[in-house]
């Protein structure tokens, strides 16, 4: 039996458990959605009752919608992406795990359909995104508390709104919080075609920073290189090219980077460290290679390099909701100015979720899978 929009037996755990309709297309096509209606409708959700292979444990379930209480907001989901953190959460190897059974998805954008009598900051028709991870956005509709949502402006493209709350925020904070970079300074990163990597390229360009972007070699490397340079990348290199002595010629017309952003680990992260300027910092925010970060003693002693980590969920714990809201609005300004676009995406109807999950876990995939409701 399913009640209140969640599986029966699922207990609440702080803000993770919800108490989240719509239709859009990415790749520049105009968004269109049905007018908000408070009439009950079947709620479909992608639910997993056990940790494991997402393609095997995620299933479509019909849920009953919760009643809207005084501080509640009924939201119709418009779109929700599949991020690596979503996959890791389903697999059970993420730092934040909801009570099972749970609805998948940590990010997305929805439209307010109805609000409770105590809600003051939201109204029907508003667009909203989750304030924190774990709400379960892979569903057509749900009821959340007002504090679990953040309003976003409706004058930004819907794909940008759907992918706003995780990757661009991570990119901006890493560029700002670890080194006092000035226009003209450079940054080096791996996994540059990832959602965070694409955001780093664009935000760095908006801040006047130059980027050295490392990617894995692939059959369509020239196409990828062209796309990343169109976003504002100064240099795009393969892992193999980064190891060649000729790489030093890059630093004839740009300073050595003082900041490295690592989402891979293993040999890739060691190469980033090798090219950091003395006193520089490498920030690790992912581990795609599932290998440890190895730093030579000589680099630590003679170059005084620093190794740090970043997790957006932890940043939120250390900062007020108002600060996160300010970050969201800052990124919205970049979007309006044309300086920040959504990552290259492929829209997939909710019922075709298995195809989207499989695509999101394939190697060398540069398109973010976005579920449309």
UniProtKB/TrEMBL annotation:
EC numbers, comma separated: 1.3.1.104
Pfam families named among the record's database cross-references: ADH_N, ADH_zinc_N
Keywords (A to Z) from UniProt: Fatty acid biosynthesis, Fatty acid metabolism, Lipid biosynthesis, Lipid metabolism, Mitochondrion, NADP, Oxidoreductase, Transit peptide
Domain Enoyl reductase (ER): 52-371
Main EC class the enzyme belongs to: oxidoreductase
Cell compartments where the protein resides: Mitochondrion
GO biological process terms on file: ceramide biosynthetic process; fatty acid biosynthetic process; intracellular iron ion homeostasis
Reactions catalysed: (2E)-decenoyl-[ACP] + NADPH + H(+) = decanoyl-[ACP] + NADP(+); (2E)-hexadecenoyl-[ACP] + NADPH + H(+) = hexadecanoyl-[ACP] + NADP(+); (2E)-dodecenoyl-[ACP] + NADPH + H(+) = dodecanoyl-[ACP] + NADP(+); a 2,3-saturated acyl-[ACP] + NADP(+) = a (2E)-enoyl-[ACP] + NADPH + H(+)
SUPFAM superfamilies documented for this protein: GroES-like (SSF50129), NAD(P)-binding Rossmann-fold domains (SSF51735)
Listed GO CC annotations: membrane; mitochondrion
Gene Ontology MF terms: enoyl-[acyl-carrier-protein] reductase (NADPH) activity
Role according to the record: Catalyzes the NADPH-dependent reduction of trans-2-enoyl thioesters in mitochondrial fatty acid synthesis (fatty acid synthesis type II). Fatty acid chain elongation in mitochondria uses acyl carrier protein (ACP) as an acyl group carrier, but the enzyme accepts both ACP and CoA thioesters as substrates in vitro. Displays a preference for medium-chain over short- and long-chain substrates. May provide the octanoyl chain used for lipoic acid biosynthesis, regulating protein lipoylation and mitochondrial respiratory activity particularly in Purkinje cells.
Record family assignment: Belongs to the zinc-containing alcohol dehydrogenase family. Quinone oxidoreductase subfamily.
Protein name: Enoyl-[acyl-carrier-protein] reductase, mitochondrial
Organism: Nannospalax galili
Lineage: Eukaryota, Metazoa, Chordata, Craniata, Vertebrata
